[in-house]
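Look over what follows to help learners.
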Amino acid sequence: MKKYYFILGALQAFTAIGAIPAGYGMFKDTTGAGLGMSPDLLADSPLNSFLLPGLYLFFVNGFANLVAAVLSFFRSRYAGHAGLLLGIALTIWIIIQVWWISLTSLLQPLFFVVGLANTWLGWKIIRSARMS
């Protein structure tokens, strides 16, 4: 079971390391220009700036995953629940992103798989704890 906690924590840390600076860049410059993006990407979405995606990236995919990684590395009883919840959140985030702006980067399928892995690992940890 230790390996599940470690892998989950590593994936959460990986997600946080990518999301925190990207989220900060988006809400610092809501046009997206600082990150090489154009507001035209948002044309088919209900958004007119990168503020809300930036806040979501920074707080949910960033800091929440950072906290969850700590829970996972210390094998907290809440690690599985955090992994399941944040895995679902990441997967839905990517689905919505691709729906609204299309597939624009190889990072989208990568983080989709990471989200699915987090969800599965979180579920596996919860299930294992219930059987103990």
